[in-house]
Structure formats: C-alpha cells, structure tokens
Amino acid sequence: MRSSRVLALGAMLGAVALTAAGCGSSGGDSSTSAATGSGTAASTGASTTVSSGGKPAKVAYVTYAMNDYVSVEVDGVKKAVEPDGGSVTVFNANFDPQKMTQQCQDAISSGRYNGIVIAPVTAPTGVPCVKAAQAAGIPVVTIEIQVGTSTERMDPQVEGVVGVVGFPTSQNAKKIAGLTAEACKGQDPCKIIGEVATPDDPVTNQVIDTVKKDVPGADVVQTVVGQYDPSMIAKAFPDALSAHPDAQVFVSAADSQALAVVPALKQAGKLGRVKLIGSGGSRLGAKAIADGTMFGTVANWPLQHGEAAGRMVVQAVNGEKVDPQSVNALEIDTPSLVTKATVSQFKPEWGAERPG
Questions:
Q1: Which is it for the CA torsion 241, 247, 250, 256, positive or negative?
Q2: In CATH, what is the architecture of 34-167+302-330?
Q3: How many alpha carbons lie under 13 Å from residue 104 in its C-beta half-sphere?
Q4: What's the CA gap between 325 and 137, in Å, rounded?
Q5: What is the C-alpha separation between 195 and 8, in angstroms, rounded?
Q6: Please, which domain of life does this record's source organism belong to (predicted)?
Q7: 257-309 pLDDT, tens per residue?
Q8: What kind of fold does domain 171-300+336-345 have according to CATH?
Q9: Range(s) within the chain of domains with CATH label 3.40.50.2300
Q10: What is the CA radius of gyration of the chain?
C-alpha cells in the first residue's frame, strides 16, 4: 500500500485498506500480532514442519505501520519461511522512526531472530537498524521503501542489506499522475484534493509533486494528511470539500482512503462528480472501479512482495546467494494500472473480500 503508501505507495494502501498502508483488519488468515511498544512482540505461531531441510528463518518484521496491506505482506513472508520451520514476528513503529530503531535494536539483542525484513518510515531512518543488524551478523531485506539515500535505486545501498523488494518512487508517482491526467481530461484547470501519508513521507509526497508537474492544468487546491488511515481521511475530507466545492478529483494515498470519502461525497451530492484515484489495488478498490465508484488505481501485489522478501531471507539465513537481489514491486504482475478497461484482468491480493 504505500505505493500507492506506495504506496505507498500506500498507499498507502491504505490502505484500507491500507488502509496502503492505516489501521485495518488482516487481509489474510495470518495470526500475526503487531508489537506496538518498544521491544515487545508476539509470535506468529508459525508451522514447525520442516519441508526441505533448510535452516529455519526466524524473522523480525519491522514496519512503519500495521494495517491490512502490511498484514498481507507478512502473510507472504510466512509462506516463504514457515515450510522450513521459520516464523515471523511483527514490530510496529506506527510512523515513529525512533521507535523503529529501538524495536529493531531490541529484536537484535533478544537473540531470537536470524533475519530482518524492514519497511522503514523513510529511507534514511532505516539505516541505524541495518547497521545494528550487520554488526550482529543478521541479514536484512527491505520491503516497500529502500534503506539508504535513494528511493529510486533497486540495488542494496547500505552494507547489511541483502535484498530489496521495493517501489521506485518516481515510477509509482508517474503511474498515479497518468491516471490523474486521464481523470482530468477536458478540465482546465483541474482542481485536485490530494492526500499524503505524512508531511515528509517520500512516496505520497512525490505523487502529489508529480501530479502538479505532469498533469496538464492540474491545480492541487489542498493536501490532507491521512497516515494510510481511512478514518483520518473520512474526518478531514468533508472540510476540504467544503473549502473547495468545485474540486474535480481526489488523489488518495490508497484505495481505502479513496473509498472513505464516498459518504461525504454522497452527502454533498457530488458522488460521481469528483473522480477518485486510488493506489494499491485492493479487492474493494477493484470492485469500486468495476461499478464506477472509483476511476482507477495502481496495482500492488503485497502477498507476492512478501513471498519475494521471505525467499531472500531464507536464502541469506542459509548462506546462499540471494537471487534475485532486487524485485521491482510495481512490475511483479499485470496489469499495472487498474481502470474500467482492465479491472476484469486484475486479481487483487489484499483488503476486504469482494462481496459476491
């Protein structure tokens, strides 16, 4: 979800889903519990059946937030590590970089984990975790956002990172801007309300910047902060719509946030007049596109993202070459853009089940 936090990105979602990243229910059958306090976490209760004789990967999953999008990524990691007796424990930083660093250090010092998957709050804030893990001989795989200085590079940037499953932020932003340009056709200016996860979130802020730059006639009249939490957007959007009653497009951080504004649009008599751009490709987002409630979304496949990250961890824990070392999360499947024309070809992996 953060891609579309993104994302993302996700957008985040936001997820809702993400909720791409919000606080939602689990998108799968995972029994994973998230640790919300520093240095505490609950085991996922992974299978103890060893299928191939590999060394079990005991994974600390250190994440910027816990929502239904991230929970499906965790399920993907579990699919890769559990057959050999591995397990996954989630540490939830809730968008707090200092908490993330502390939780990572606590996971390392506990001696319970031989692998880490990290979805950092921002690229630089993940560096202390990686450095501490490297000093302890624990391999790290990054998921969603890179760790380092660049959110564009897909190769490991910091020594200690053995694999990357991520969203190049400019590619994600251009996809959402392309959908926005389609939604804005015939409108000049095209008045847009945009959403970012946090004021400094790299994925969602780059989306809004790219929309301003690349969409002809774009006029971003207001930006709201949602933290991938549909309830925050549901509260903030009515005021934004009241301030800008002539808004024509809402560019959300994730499908769930896009859908969270539907009640406000109905109440204002503007449902169908404000086009909704999602991100993350949730089940409910796909359904909303099919029935015309949403205009479009950028596809994400969090289960496959997690499986790819989990395979990387298993290889590293067993002293094998990590191959592939990087996976572009935006290109892991097709179609990459979900619209009325392509929704029938898309198989969403996260969010509430589609009714019927």
A1: positive
A2: 3-Layer(aba) Sandwich (3.40)
A3: 32
A4: 18
A5: 11
A6: Bacteria
A7: 999 999 999 999 999 999 999 999 999 999 999 999 999 999 999 999 999 99
A8: Rossmann fold (3.40.50)
A9: 34-167+302-330, 171-300+336-345
A10: 19
Which ranges in the chain belong to alpha helices (H)? 68-81, 97-110, 127-135, 169-183, 202-214, 230-243, 255-260, 262-267, 283-290, 302-317
Three-state SS for 211? helix
Predicted local distance difference test score (pLDDT) of residue 316: 98
Length reported for the chain: 356
Residue at 304: amino acid letter? Q
- CA dist 298 and 7 (Å) reads 9
Nearest to 93 by CA among 79, 111, 109, 105: 105
Residue entry with tokens 């990172």: 161
CB 258 within 8 A of CB 17: no
Helix/strand/coil percentages in the chain, nearest 5: 35, 20, 45
Name which of 151, 149, 133 is nearest 141 in CA terms.
133
Cβ neighbours around 319 below 10 Å, total? 8
- Which amino acid, one-letter code, is at 239? D
What CA–CA distances, in Å, run from 203 to 2, 111, 150?
7, 33, 12
3-state secondary structure of 173: helix
Q: For residues 44 and 169, which has the higher predicted lDDT (pLDDT)?
A: 169
DSSP at 124? G
The residue type found at 312 is: M
Question: Distance between CA atoms of 342 and 299, rounded to whole angstroms?
Answer: 11
Please give the Cα distance from 338 to 221 (Å, whole number): 26
Q: Using an 8 Å Cβ cutoff, are 69 and 18 in contact?
A: yes
CA nearest to 247, candidates 292, 177, 190, 204 = 190
- pTM, full prediction: 0.80
